[in-house]
From TrEMBL:
Source superkingdom: Eukaryota
PANTHER family from the UniProt entry: EF-HAND DOMAIN-CONTAINING PROTEIN, SI:CH211-161H7.5-RELATED
Keywords: Membrane, Transmembrane, Transmembrane helix
Name used for this protein in its record: Uncharacterized protein
Transmembrane segments annotated in the record for this chain: 52-70, 82-102, 108-127, 200-230, 250-272
Length: 301
């Protein structure tokens, strides 16, 4: 009996992830990605400790491929091959980005990381529309309360939706950083770019939070903003005599700090609001069988 298409792409996902992890481990040990990122000043690069999130991402991706190989999702059996294809393509792009970036092809390296961002965006749309999330916040901007997901499995949420959510969320930040590095490489240094991207990052994550209620995405957003604030807080003291240096790093420190505070406060408010509001009241349940005693105009008493 021949292998099914889904089985083949699952095997390819394991191979693609293994290659990605191997090259990531090599560059992590050598520290050349960190050195390459420091060659071009960039105010949006978070502190070094922020990049430890890759360990979390790698762990979740390993969970994804192993779970899909041994105990695949039954609810998504007919469509999940598409997610595997997207994952394979993103792994190739991410690996290519690393190799180009560390060898000094900074400008050229933007193409594969941007491609990875687009591919992972498609992957996120897949998991967001197919797998029911665990929502702990009030959803203020969504009208899809009655949307029926293909999978309501908590195992699918933790093993499929969460890995791709945090992977794409961090890739959003990494792509923005790469874009600003590209701009700096082209000789353009303008605070307006940094203000725009920092503000857009906060706005985009707020919209996702109030529209989708994706907690893993919100966690990565906060992690990134805090990392940017801490790094700029430290860097502004490196050249105290350089007024422009201090002013620019201070501006980004303030923006990232305020953004993290506003975003974190909004998240807590939405959590408390959901708790205060309580469970959804039934629309077509037992409450509708209770006769109303309200007086209606035009009704005889």
């Amino acid at each position: 009996m021949g292998l099914s298409t889904t089985t083949v792409v699952r095997a390819c996902s394991i191979v693609a992830l293994a290659l990605f992890l191997w090259r990531s481990a090599v560059h992590s040990i050598e520290g050349d990605i960190r050195d390459a990122s420091r060659r071009t000043p960039n105010l949006l690069t978070p502190m070094d400790a922020s990049f430890s999130i890759w360990g979390v991402i790698y762990a979740w991706l390993i969970v994804f491929v192993l779970r899909e190989w041994f105990v695949p999702s039954a609810a998504l059996e007919s469509s999940i091959y598409a997610l595997h294809l997207l994952f394979i393509a993103s792994s190739v792009c991410s690996t290519l980005w690393m190799e180009l970036f560390v060898t000094g092809y900074t400008r050229l390296s933007f193409a594969p990381i941007f491609g990875s961002w687009l591919i992972l965006f498609a992957a996120y749309l897949y998991v967001e529309s197919h797998i029911e999330p665990i929502v702990v916040t009030s959803i203020l901007a969504s009208r899809n309360a009655d949307y029926v997901f293909d999978s309501t499995s908590r195992a699918d949420f933790w093993c499929i939706r969460v890995p791709f959510t945090i992977y794409w969320a961090w890739t959003c930040a990494a792509t923005t950083i790469s874009l600003n590095i590209l701009v700096e490489e082209c000789g353009v240094h303008a605070m307006g770019f940094y203000v725009f991207w920092c503000g857009l990052w906060v706005l985009a994550n707020v919209l996702i939070l109030i529209g989708v209620g994706d907690v893993p995405f919100a966690a990565v957003a906060l992690w990134t903003l805090v990392g940017i604030a801490v790094r700029n807080s430290r860097e502004k003291h490196v050249h105290d005599a350089d007024v422009q240096w201090v002013a620019e790093h201070y501006a980004l420190e303030v923006m990232a700090t305020v953004g993290a505070f506003v975003f974190g406060s909004l998240f807590l408010f939405l959590v408390l609001h959901k708790w205060w509001r309580g469970l959804k009241r039934p629309v077509n349940g037992i409450l509708n069988t209770i006769p109303s005693t309200a007086t209606t105009y035009g009704t005889a008493v």
